[in-house]
Structures are given as structure tokens and as C-alpha cells.
Specification:
Elements lengths: L8 E10 L2 E5 L21 E2 L19 E9 L6 H10 L1
Antiparallel strand pairs: 1-2, 1-3, 1-4
Length: 93
């Protein structure tokens, strides 16, 4: 199968710890996914990013609150090195 989608990482459980509370974040596991997440890939409880995904945290961090985000990365890579992009980045640095 020739699948040329950009793949980031496969994300399972996501938890936000904030102000002595724990919030389970599951927007990436819903049928309607936030921007940057691939549609159902057939993995139970896991969603793949395209390498640049959004993860809405609702209002859990409103009013200047700080938190710790914990993510279970279930799979990643292998990634093919893009020589043209690397050369272009080196020239601009």
C-alpha cells in the first residue's frame, strides 16, 4: 500500500494535572478530531498526529493556571530524512 500521509506520533492517554486536579483529555480520540489528527487508523484508544496537531485543553488552564501535560506515545517513526528540507534549513541558519 502506498500511503504518503505525514505521520507524527500515535497518542494514547492524555492527562492534564492542574491545581490538584486531574483531567482526562480525549478530544484526539473522538470521531471529529481537532486539526492535525488523522481520521481513524484502526488502532483502539490511539490517534496519530500529522506532526503538527492541536490538542484543545478547554478552559482547564484559564486565568493563568499552570499544569503538567502527560501523554502516552504508543508509536513513532521510522521517519525518512528529507535532504532538501535539511539543506534549505542549513542555508537559512
Amino acid at each position: 500500500m502506498d500511503d504518503r500521509r505525514y505521520m507524527g506520533v500515535a497518542v494514547g492517554e492524555v492527562r492534564l494535572f492542574c491545581a490538584k486536579q486531574q483531567f482526562d483529555i480525549a478530544s484526539h480520540l473522538q470521531t471529529e478530531k481537532p486539526e492535525g489528527w488523522h481520521a481513524d487508523m484502526g488502532w483502539q484508544g490511539v490517534a496519530w498526529t500529522n506532526g503538527n496537531a492541536e490538542l484543545p485543553l478547554q478552559d482547564h488552564l484559564a486565568h493563568g493556571k499552570m499544569g503538567i501535560l502527560s501523554m502516552t506515545i504508543c508509536a513513532a517513526g521510522p521517519y525518512i530524512k528529507d535532504n532538501q528540507r535539511t539543506a534549505k534549513t542549513a542555508k537559512s541558519a
